[in-house]
Specification:
Helix content is 83%, strand content 0%. It is built from 9 helices and no strands.
Amino acid sequence: MEQVLLWIQTYGTPAIILLIALEYACFPISSEIVLPFAGAVGAGIGISLPLLVLYSSLAGLAGTSLTYAIGRYGGSPLMEKIMSRFPSTKKPILASYRTFGNHGKIAVCLGRVIPICRTYIAFVAGACEQSFPTYAFFSAIGIAVWNTMLLTLGYYFYQFRETFFLYFNKYKNIILVVGLLLLVLLLVIKRSDEEE
């Protein structure tokens, strides 16, 4: 991940666009890290937040269109092969199928903000033969919402970083204890989910 952040620092906007497209095309790049960092870098080099959202949304739509096409032309047999070859994908792919089955056309919009299925909803929409214009429309809405939230965090963090670090240094012991307690709680919840 350090290499990813270095690319963003070195190449700016083109790196942001490429990395976001790759993340939406299911490459193992975390949008939860890349997008806030991209927002901070954008603020630092003077790119407006609306322009960052536009660039990132177009990049996300390009990347997710690739996974949609793979799902569309590979269909359900491809999904079965992916799940059998990579067992860790079974739960999110099935969750994506459930989301798609329960919500129809709008599932791709909703799926963009649901962590467990946001990565695989494009494959599923393609495999279920949703029309591409419908897919692109609803996907663009979800991508814009998700990207706006994460870019805004980084963008405003950069602008108020001095205030943040002032409070962080003042309350860092409390923040670290609370963070550790939340981490333990999440691990306990995850373990109980796996046992069920």
